[in-house]
Specification:
The complex is a heterodimer of chains A (93) and B (247). Chain A is mostly helical and 93 residues long. Chain A has one domain. Helices cover 89% and strands 0% of the residues of chain A. Chain A is elongated. Chain B contains seven helices and no strands. In chain B, helix 2 crosses helix 3, helix 2 crosses helix 6 and helix 4 runs antiparallel to helix 5. The chains are: A mainly alpha (93), B mainly alpha (247). Chains A and B meet through helix 1, helix 2 and helix 3 of A and helix 2, helix 5, helix 6 and helix 7 of B.
């Protein structure tokens, strides 16, 4: 496995960026539930804070998914931009 | 997680009373220290620093490690990354060699214990928050309030949960991969000690390298997310529309 060839780098990028999203979404929901249950115990407001914080956790998980999609779109637009620049240069030549 | 068996660190006085992961981490770090010290000394002795040695020497090895880490950091973070070379480079070296030490009989990798990986991930977590506050001042809190100020009470707990999920996912991923690899290797050794575990050992090398890269790449993403300025994104948004129209 040669280091730093474009193919390898792309592959590692894929694993590190998109392979993490499942774990992160799950952990977000888990943290939400744990926080909610803990706060419920402190304030004696049984199911309410658990429900609210579970929703917060779900939203946080989807927010990280959304951020990933946003980054992906930015990356793709950057690539398309570079390709268009290259084509324009070719036409000028 | 009580393993039976003999480990190298048990023979070293001072280390044998420590828990397993601490003893192994200390042993691996000590070996690395000796290696780097020897490399540094032979680097000092040479009079010509430009032409590399013909054989694969210790100095080449050190240069390879440093070059790969610098390239990785600069490719992903740009010029800001140079100030982070110390923490990220140490992470690369420590995690990579601890992972790989698991393939040698007599070592139990420290990274297959949740305590070690949690310590690493929490270090990254506090460091990137610190760098965020350092580069933005109190305005760093704007990262937590979302796009509008009236949404702040709603966004704040969401962002806090999202940020707290990061060290947890970092540590759990590294721990799970190394632990799983270790257990699979152990079971295959029990079933058929000759030749059958070889593919799993190859897989172990692969997993060690990839998990190191994943840990460091994600840390770099968190660091640059904390350091970068928010308004840069707004400049890039119109470019995207232009391209889609042109396409």
């Amino acid at each position: 496995m040669k280091f730093g060839t474009p193919k390898t780098r792309k592959w590692v990028d894929l694993v590190s960026k998109y392979g993490t999203i499942g774990l992160e979404m799950g952990i977000c929901v888990f943290l939400g539930v744990v926080f909610g249950a803990y706060l419920d115990k402190i304030f004696h407001t049984e199911p309410w804070l658990t429900i609210v914080f579970t929703l917060f956790g779900i939203v946080a998980g989807f927010k990280s998914l959304f951020k990933l999609a946003h980054d992906l779109m930015r990356e793709e637009s950057r690539k398309a931009n570079e390709e268009a620049e290259g084509e324009r240069k070719e036409r000028r030549d | 997680m009580e393993h039976g068996g003999i480990f190298y660190y048990q023979f070293i006085p001072g280390l044998n009373k420590l828990p397993m992961q601490v003893g192994n981490a200390a042993l691996v770090s000590f070996i690395l220290l000796v290696l780097f010290f020897l490399g540094y000394r032979s680097l000092k002795k040479r009079d010509d620093n430009i032409i590399p040695d013909k054989k694969f020497t210790l100095v080449n090895f050190m240069e390879l490690i440093v070059e790969v880490s610098i390239k990785l950091i600069e490719d992903n973070m740009g010029k800001v990354g140079k100030s982070l070379l110390y923490i990220l480079g140490s992470l690369i070296v420590f995690i990579l060699f601890n992972n790989l030490s698991g393939l040698i009989p007599g070592f139990a990798p420290a990274t297959s214990n949740l305590n070690t990986t949690m310590a690493l991930a929490l270090t990254v977590f506090f460091m990137y928050q610190f760098y965020g506050f350092k580069s933005h001042g109190i305005k760093y809190l704007k990262h937590f309030t979302g796009p509008f100020l009236w949404m702040a009470p709603l966004m704040f707990p969401i962002e806090i949960i999202g940020h707290l999920a990061r060290p947890m996912s970092l540590s759990l991923r590294l721990f799970g991969n190394m632990m799983g690899d270790h257990i699979v290797l152990g079971i295959f050794f029990l079933l058929a000690p000759l030749l059958v575990p070889l593919p799993i050992m190859f897989l172990g090398i692969f997993v060690s390298v990839v998990q190191t890269l994943v840990f460091v790449l994600l840390s770099m993403a968190y660091f640059s997310g904390a350091i970068e300025h928010e308004h840069e994104e707004e400049h890039e948004a119109p470019v995207m529309e232009e391209v889609t129209e042109a396409a």
